[in-house]
Amino acid sequence: MDWKRGAYPEFEIEDVVVVLFLLKTPKGRKQISEELNLGEGTVRTLLKKLSSIGLVESQQKGHSLSEKGAEVVKEISRLFSEPLEATPLDGFVTYALVVKNPPEFKSIELRDEAIRFFARGAMILVVQDNEIIFPEDRRPLKETLPKLSEDLKKLPIENGDLVIVTWADTKADALKSLIHVALTLKGELLPEEIKKLVE
Questions:
Q1: What Gene Ontology terms describe what this protein does at the molecular function level (predicted)?
Q2: How high is the pLDDT of residue 14?
Q3: Are 177 and 85 in a shared domain?
Q4: Exposed/middle/buried for 180, CB within 10 Å: 0-12, 13-18, 19+?
Q5: Contact 48/83 with Cβ under 8 angstroms?
Q6: I want to staple 172 with a disulfide (CB 3.0 to 4.6 A). Which of 37, 85, 139, 177 is the partner?
Q7: Is 12 helix (H, G, I), strand (E, B) or coil?
Q8: Mean pLDDT of the chain
Q9: DSSP β-bridge partners for residue 163
Q10: Taking the complete model, does pTM exceed 0.90, yes or no?
Q11: Confidence label for 78 from pLDDT (cuts 50, 70 and 90)
Q12: pLDDT for 123-141, tens place per residue?
């Protein structure tokens, strides 16, 4: 049995953020449960908590963001972008996002954070002169991974941004490890009501 699917309604801040992004389009509880590899009881608890602070509405067709929820997602998007599914790397599910105004960071530490959070691998890139490059040697990504480089152009990138790419066995692990790295950099700037959900 998958250890993550216990009867305990446990979720982490990463789950909360991923659910908020997912609910930009209405989704049913079962769908959220499958996409995030969380038990349905956990998803029920998480949705109930989001609903109690007015961020999520439930209708017949599923759960979606309320107006307030959409505002909160906009606020989060000023810190980092919504995850974008990219071309699989090494056959693994791959996602990427942009971190705006990143603080000082060490690529190796951020990669370790992603792997600690079940990613198979991670890439930390920066945007310079409108090019996505490897910070260590300033090599443009398009020279080694042209397809990924093309995908990442769909992200709202600007000079000075940090681009994080993670890949994992499942969509849930790829997404959560990606959000985890973004939160390592920007977590304390999340809206207070979101942080309170997991205290």
A1: aminoacyl-tRNA ligase activity; ATP binding
A2: 96
A3: yes
A4: buried
A5: no
A6: 37
A7: coil
A8: 93
A9: 98, 125
A10: yes
A11: very high
A12: 999 999 999 999 999 999 9
- Going by their DSSP bridges, the two strands 131-133 and 121-128 should be labelled as antiparallel
Domain carrying residue 109? 79-189
Dihedral (Cα; 157, 80, 72, 194), 10-degree rounding: 180
Residue 190 has pLDDT above 60, yes or no: yes
| 141 and 176 assigned to the same domain | yes
Asked whether residue 16 falls in the same domain as residue 90, the answer is no
Strands (E), 54-120: 56-59, 62-65, 84-89, 92-99
Question: Which tokens sit at 157?
Answer: 């990138």
**DSSP secondary structure string, 17-61?**
HHHHHHTTS-B-HHHHHHHHT--HHHHHHHHHHHHHTTSEEEETT
CA 85 to chain centre: 10
Q: Indicate if the pLDDT at residue 6 is higher than 70.
A: no
Does 101 lie in the same domain as 69? no
User: How many C-beta neighbours within 10 Å does residue 188 have?
Assistant: 7
21: Cβ–Cβ under 8 A, 6 or more apart, which residues?
Answer: 73, 76, 82, 83
Q: Average of pLDDT values for 60-67?
A: 92
Per-residue pLDDT band at 5 (split at 50, 70, 90): very low
Shared domain for 149 and 92, answered yes or no, is yes
